[in-house]
Each structure stands twice: as structure tokens, then as C-alpha cells.
């Protein structure tokens, strides 16, 4: 009887000890956050993205303000001050795409992924943790950079008479949309990194999809022209008006562009999850 009583008393202690070492999604998130913030390359890449976003936007605005009198009436009529001030995202998306790829492939190149998957045998929580940490770190910074680029750019465009404020139609949506776009672009890059598991292949594919594919769609036959708005960079541009030229009638609406970009993101992440679940590290 005393043996049974002692065993019953010890069981809660054993269960408590097991709970202390149990793998949970929250603990995986903490682990991935520690990895994220401890890498010097991560901080450098984020800093580069912010500098490109704000710096290039201010540069475009300053040059435009200086050269405004030389613009033709047609150029002035189609001028988009919002897209101009947010134009730095055309450059910073590459930095964030490279960061997204490296966050996945870096562990494969060093072999650290084996330790991660040994600690988390179910595997997929590791991927969800990496994605969540990326969004939590990148989106607020991208949004702050977007706001700074917009406000600074409009201040520099004051001499053109075409500057707008945050309350102008489409302004707030574009500021948020640009930050959301580069965040989703980074998630697509992470998916590519998880699928290919090679840094060079992941970055090359990202560059091909975001920078090479859109111009190639312009060469398609007329019967294929319906595909032009659907590459991820083209769909994302519709969320914030990233084109400096005249309005493109074939461009998707902001809502449709977001839906297409989310579909690209889901497909990329699903492919990475499938390979992580089905194949060894």
C-alpha cells in the first residue's frame, strides 16, 4: 500500500518534469528568435533594406523636385508622388529576399538544421517559427521605413505642387501595402530557400521570379497578355503603385494584387513544408 501511495505521489512530479522539457510552438518561436537576432548578417541586411527604402525614396524625390520644370506636360499629368517616394522598395525587396533565403539555407549549409530537427522531431514547427519571426521582425521595420520615405519624400516634393499627405486617397494604403509587399516577398524567398536548400539556387530563383520574369511577360504573344499582371512583383506593385511610368490599365486592383501575392506566398511556403516533411535534412 505504501509503495502504491509513493508512486502516486511521484507521478505528478514526473509529469511536471516532462512538461518542462516538452517541445511547444512557443518554445520553438523563442529559439528561432534567438537565432534571428544573434546573427550579425541579419542585422546588417535589415539595416541595408531600411537605408535603401528611405534613402532611394528621398533621392528620387529630391531629383524630381529639382528637375520638375523640365518635365513635359504629359509627364506631369501622369506623375505619381506616392509611388515615387516609395520607390526605394524596388531595391530593398532584393535585400529582404536574400535575408529570407539565408534564414533557411544558412542552417543547411552549416549543418545546424540537424540539431534543430532533432530538438523538434515534428519538423514543421521549426518552419512556422522561422516564418513568424521573420514577419514579426520585418513588417514593423518595413512599415516604419515606408512611412519615413513617404513623409520625407512628400516634403521634398513640395516645390512641385504635387505633394500629398497621408490622408490623401490611396496614400495610407500604399504606405502599408508597400511594407506588406516586401514582407510577403521575403516569405516567398524563405519558401524557395526551404524548397531548394541551397543559398545560390534560392537567391537565383528569387531574382528570376521577381526581376527577370516580369520583363519576359512583356514579350509574350497578345493571346498570352492576360498573364502579365500575375507574377508576384507585378501583383505586389498594384498594392502600392510601384511603377514610375504612366498608369498601366492591365494592372490588378490593390485587393486582387494582394490575393495573388498571398497565393504565391502560400504556394512557396507549402512547397517548403512538403519537402521538410518528406525528406531528410
- Report the sheet with the most strands, covering strand number, pairing sense and barrel closure: none
Put simply, the count of helices is 12
Count the domains.
Answer: 1
Mean pLDDT: 88
Question: Would you identify the regions where 5 or more consecutive residues have pLDDT less than 50?
Answer: none
CA-CA gap between termini:
50 Å
Give the DSSP E fraction (strand runs of 2 or more residues). under 5%
Radius of gyration: 23 Å
What's the helix and strand layout?
Blueprint: H1 2-21, H2 25-38, H3 40-67, H4 73-77, H5 81-85, H6 89-110, H7 112-119, H8 124-156, H9 171-196, H10 199-217, H11 232-240, H12 254-278
Keywords:
12 helices, 281 residues, mainly alpha
Structure notes:
The protein has 281 residues and is an all-alpha fold. It has one domain (28-278). 76% of the residues lie in helices and 0% in strands. It is globular, with a radius of gyration of 23 Å.
Can you give me a brief rundown of this structure?
This protein has 281 residues and is an all-alpha fold. The protein is built from twelve helices and no strands. It has one domain (28-278).
Amino acid at each position: 500500500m505504501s509503495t502504491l501511495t509513493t508512486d502516486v505521489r511521484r507521478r505528478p512530479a514526473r509529469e511536471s518534469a516532462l512538461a518542462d522539457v516538452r517541445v511547444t510552438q512557443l518554445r520553438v518561436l523563442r529559439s528561432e528568435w534567438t537565432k534571428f537576432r544573434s546573427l550579425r548578417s541579419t542585422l546588417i541586411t535589415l539595416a541595408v533594406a531600411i537605408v535603401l527604402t528611405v534613402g532611394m525614396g528621398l533621392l528620387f524625390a529630391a531629383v524630381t523636385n529639382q528637375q520638375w520644370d523640365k518635365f513635359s506636360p504629359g509627364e506631369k499629368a501622369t506623375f505619381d508622388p506616392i509611388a515615387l517616394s516609395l520607390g526605394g522598395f524596388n531595391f530593398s525587396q532584393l535585400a529582404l529576399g536574400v535575408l529570407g533565403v539565408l534564414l533557411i539555407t544558412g542552417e543547411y549549409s552549416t549543418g545546424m538544421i540537424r540539431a534543430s530537427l532533432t530538438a523538434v522531431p515534428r519538423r514543421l514547427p521549426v518552419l512556422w517559427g522561422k516564418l513568424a519571426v521573420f514577419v514579426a521582425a520585418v513588417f514593423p521595420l518595413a512599415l516604419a521605413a515606408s512611412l519615413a520615405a513617404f513623409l520625407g519624400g512628400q516634403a521634398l516634393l513640395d516645390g512641385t505642387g504635387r505633394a500629398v499627405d497621408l490622408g490623401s486617397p490611396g496614400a495610407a494604403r500604399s504606405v502599408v501595402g508597400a511594407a506588406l509587399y516586401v514582407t510577403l516577398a521575403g516569405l516567398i524567398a524563405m519558401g524557395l530557400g526551404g524548397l531548394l536548400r541551397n543559398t545560390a539556387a534560392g537567391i537565383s530563383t528569387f531574382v528570376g521570379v521577381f526581376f527577370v520574369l516580369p520583363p519576359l511577360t512583356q514579350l509574350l504573344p497578345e493571346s498570352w497578355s492576360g498573364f502579365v499582371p500575375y507574377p508576384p512583383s507585378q501583383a505586389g506593385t498594384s498594392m502600392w503603385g510601384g511603377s514610375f511610368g504612366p498608369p498601366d490599365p492591365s494592372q490588378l486592383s490593390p485587393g486582387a494584387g494582394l490575393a495573388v501575392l498571398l497565393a504565391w506566398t502560400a504556394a512557396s511556403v507549402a512547397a517548403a513544408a512538403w519537402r521538410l516533411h518528406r525528406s531528410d535534412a
